[in-house]
Amino acid sequence: MTNIQPEDDQDEKPLDPAMERVRRKMIRLQIVSGIIMFVSLMAVFGAVVYKTMRAPAKEPTAVTSAGVPSDAPVNVTATLPPGFVIQSSSLSGGQIMFFGATADGIMKSLVVDIKSGRIVADVTINGG
After folding, report:
1. Contact 90, 103 (CB under 8 A)
2. What is the pLDDT of residues 58-99, one digit of tens each?
3. Alpha helices, DSSP H, located in 11-81
4. Are the beta carbons of 111 and 94 closer than 8 angstroms?
5. Residue 8 has pLDDT above 80, yes or no
6. What span, in angstroms and rounded, lies between the C-alpha atoms of 24 and 123?
7. Region for residue 28 given its phi and psi (left: phi exceeds 0; alpha: psi -120 to 50; beta: otherwise)
8. Among 92, 102, 87, CA closest to 65
9. Using CA atoms in the order 110, 114, 118, 121, what is the torsion angle rounded to 10 degrees?
């Protein structure tokens, strides 16, 4: 059924010149691709090593969110509307929110910037 040839006949025969050129081009392409892959892999490893070995950035001294060092107290006077009765307050970052009622009984939320000492938001609350 199948024609089995002896080993002596299975020796490689030289390729014709066109196939030899194609084979050489393929080998060159493999070498160039391998070099590019190697260089890319080394770049990735270099970036990882650089990131891990780089000294961490120095942290600044303790500073409050208002921009004042923690060892210096802040002296600010917030001028609220006359007759404003504070019911609650809240601190967030460099701002304080005062919730309360005016002398007329209108519910308001006033946001005061600590750094400048002025009211940055005046929110009137209408109850239903």
Report:
1. no
2. 655 544 555 555 666 778 788 888 898 999 988 888 889 999
3. 17-53
4. no
5. no
6. 79
7. alpha
8. 92
9. -30
